[in-house]
Write a structure and sequence with these properties.
Strand content: 15-25%
CATH topology: Rossmann fold
Number of strands: 14
Radius of gyration: 19 Å
Bound molecules: NADP nicotinamide-adenine-dinucleotide phosphate
CATH superfamily: NAD(P)-binding Rossmann-like Domain
Structural class: alpha/beta
Number of helices: 10
Order of helices and strands: EHEEHEHHEHEEHEEEHEEHEEHH
Largest sheet: 7 strands, parallel
């Protein structure tokens, strides 16, 4: 919860603040304790007054409790914090869990996103939504923002429907799609995969990674920089793709990460068939980034740069 402060006018945006603490524009990051949230909150701290929105939040400045499945909780969080910018990272991000628990997936990924978009529209907050390459079936090599979504998994279905709902509710929204984010976790219990892999390799445990799923990965820090750059551009809206300049298999990515972490690439073994019982995943999720490249100063990294930045 917020500490009450003055009701002065924010110099940057000119908007009235119920709880003004600094002269910086205020960014509400919803899902701030997740994998991406920890990177974005860190990256945004210099230019923004960051408010971390999480289901469970300490009662102290800079934090707000928000459960996106609860419309009243969302409305209350926006009314209390009055953000200039809201970034929605909160999601049920486990594709296999979404496939099995469709009701929960819809409640969080679709209806939760709708609640947040509605609140952002009502409070005139600039809004960025994080979507996924899973909106595509992965049957062709290279997707632009104009390609029609063709999701294979229920997770992809929820993201596709959320994108459409958000763009109706708040046409000025930025929808940022990416396929595979790499990096070490800022906190335990997030979607980050690198900690677990490096821990296994450091005790000599081999890892099986699919050689039939191709993605253009992006590291969490670079992704956060692109989010911030898009949000700085006031007249930008619509869908954008972000990812490395080239796509590689999860297996090849694993070999490169293992080598960079100082372990033998032999610890990474190619998985040839999908594991039974898992949600369907597209074979080739190469997101083309020409649209982003045309407007951003940040350059699109190569896969080698993505890997290097994970360790910086
Ligand atoms: N990581 C990737 O490779 C990847 C790829 C494509 C797209 N994305 C998208 O990027 C976004 C961020 O992903 P991530 O990797 O940071 O995921 P993450 O580590 O799983 O973080 C998701 C966060 O959402 C929160 N959350 C879940 N349900 C909530 C609810 N009802 N109300 C409020 N918060 C809730 C979780 O909070 P709790 O800790 O309380 O559960 C968690 O902190 C998601 O939209 C995801 O779909 C990620």
């Amino acid at each position: 919860m917020f500490d009450p402060g003055s009701n002065a006018c924010n110099k940057t945006t000119g908007r009235k603040k119920a709880y003004l603490q600094t002269n910086k524009p205020r960014m509400l990051i919803i899902g701030a304790r997740g994998f991406l949230g920890t990177y974005l909150a860190r990256g945004a701290a210099e230019a923004y007054e960051v408010i971390r929105g999480n289901r469970v939040a300490p009662v102290e400045p800079g934090h707000i409790a928000i459960d996106i499945t609860d419309r009243q909780s969302v409305r209350s969080a926006f009314e209390q914090t009055k953000p200039d910018i809201a970034v929605l990272l909160a999601a049920l991000s486990d594709i296999d869990v979404c496939e099995k628990d469709r009701e929960r997936a819809l409640a969080v990924n679709l209806h939760g996103a709708e609640h947040v978009a509605r609140a952002a529209a009502q409070t005139h907050a600039r809004f960025l939504y994080t979507s996924s390459a899973a909106v595509f079936d992965g049957r062709k090599h290279g997707y632009t923002e104009d390609d029609p979504p063709t999701p294979l998994s229920f997770y992809g279905e929820t993201k596709t429907r959320a994108e459409a709902a958000i763009q109706t509710l708040i046409p000025s929204a930025i929808v940022l799609r990416f396929g595979l984010v790499v990096g070490f976790a800022g906190k335990a219990g997030t979607n980050a995969m690198l900690d677990n892999l490096v821990q296994r390799w450091s005790v000599g445990t081999p890892t099986l990674l699919p050689d039939f799923e191709f993605r253009n990965p992006i590291d969490a820090a670079t992704l956060s920089r692109f989010m911030l750059e898009l949000l700085e551009k006031e007249n930008i809206s619509g869908i954008f793709h972000v990812g490395a300049t080239e796509s590689i298999s999860r297996y090849e990515l694993g070999v490169m990460l293992a080598a960079r972490a100082g372990h033998s690439g032999g610890l990474v073994r190619p998985q040839k068939e999908p594991s039974p019982g898992r949600a369907p995943r597209g074979a080739d999720h190469f997101l083309l980034t020409h649209k982003l490249k045309a407007i951003c100063d940040n350059s699109i990294p190569t896969c080698n740069e993505v890997i290097e930045r994970c360790f910086q």
